[in-house]
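User: Show me a protein chain along with its predicted structure.
Assistant: Here is one chain, sequence first, then structure tokens.
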Amino acid sequence: MANFYYYLNSLAKGLFGIGGVMEKEELPRNTAYLRFCSVELCKFFNNLGLPFGKKINFELSPTVLSERSLRIALLRGLMDTDGSLCKRGNRLALVFTSYDNYLLNLVESFGKEFDIFTHKNSSQVGTDSWPKICKYFQIIGSSNHRHVICFLAKLKCNKMIYKSETAKFKNLSTGLVLPYRADGLVVRAETL
């Protein structure tokens, strides 16, 4: 997970000239944060439609949603932070979780647009279809090392792994440029 924070931090330094601080909250939440303290960064995101404070009951600017490349980047960012790609039972699942109806419906609409997601419930949108997961990595990609490693473990080694097992397969992501996309991927029947 630290690689993802280093990636985000270097991205912020390149785009905005600021660096963040990684903070961890142990039990009960077991959460890590990359905190940025910048008025200019807050103003930038506020101009895109993100309100100051908690991000509940808001709508993004139509400008952000109007361009395909921005929708792809937004979906990648949401999935990299509030999504997961991991083994669930005997299948690999790509799932976005949110209790905010606007975000859940937005991700569902992107999933329909790109023909990726196959199910939705009150707090999740996602798929456990291997061809749809491959399509996600071709079109959207990921900057989250854990997601990339889980995907590559299935693609290259035909192994479905839990998030806790990603360290054993970290060599699969050596030399990859983020965001990772599976360009030219052909899903063969034997990999399904």
